């Protein structure tokens, strides 16, 4: 529920609230829970916390490296922080 609430907060323009809700979802979930981590990545990107979003996206990809949505999260974070891996990924 917290992950869903975080998504709704981000969609309604409350990025800081989304980060708080997603952080709580991650804290309460099983370690590495993909639903909570995905909510966290989305919230962090919406709030401009690109380095943190990058770290959370890396956790998602570590468990499922072929997931296209997780690759897109990682690529978005890389692009926003100016990481050269973004260009290599989308070359």
Regions with little confidence, pLDDT below 50 for 5+ residues: none
Average pLDDT: 94
Helix/strand order: HHHHHH
What shape does the CA trace take? globular
Query: Radius of gyration, rounded?
Result: 13 Å
**Which structural class do you get from the secondary structure elements?**
mainly alpha
Number of DSSP strand runs: 0
Q: Quick one: biggest sheet?
A: none
Number of helices: 6
The helix content, as a percent range, equals: over 70%
Fraction of residues in β-strands: under 5%
Distance between the termini: 38 Å
List keywords for this structure.
mainly alpha, 6 helices, 0% strand, globular
Structural overview:
The protein has helices at 2-11, 15-28, 34-46, 50-63, 68-81, 85-89. By secondary structure, the protein is an all-alpha fold. The longest helix is centred in the first third of the chain and has 14 residues, at 15-28. The N and C termini lie far apart (38 Å). The radius of gyration is 13 Å and the shape is globular. The model has no long low-confidence stretch (mean pLDDT 94). 77% of the residues lie in helices and 0% in strands. It has six helices and no strands.
Q: How are the elements arranged and paired?
A:
Layout: H1 2-11, H2 15-28, H3 34-46, H4 50-63, H5 68-81, H6 85-89
Helix pairs in contact: 1-2, 1-3, 2-3, 3-4, 3-5, 4-5
How would you concisely characterize the structure shown here?
The protein is mainly α and 91 residues long. The protein contains 6 helices and no strands.
């Amino acid at each position: 529920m917290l992950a869903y609430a975080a998504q709704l907060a981000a969609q309604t323009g409350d990025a800081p609230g989304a980060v708080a809700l997603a952080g709580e979802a991650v804290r309460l979930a099983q370690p590495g829970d993909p639903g909570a981590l995905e909510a966290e990545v989305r919230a962090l990107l919406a709030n401009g916390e690109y380095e943190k979003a990058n770290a959370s996206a890396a956790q998602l990809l570590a468990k499922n490296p072929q997931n296209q949505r997780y690759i897109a999260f990682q690529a978005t974070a890389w692009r926003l922080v100016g990481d050269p891996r973004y260009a290599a990924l989308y070359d």
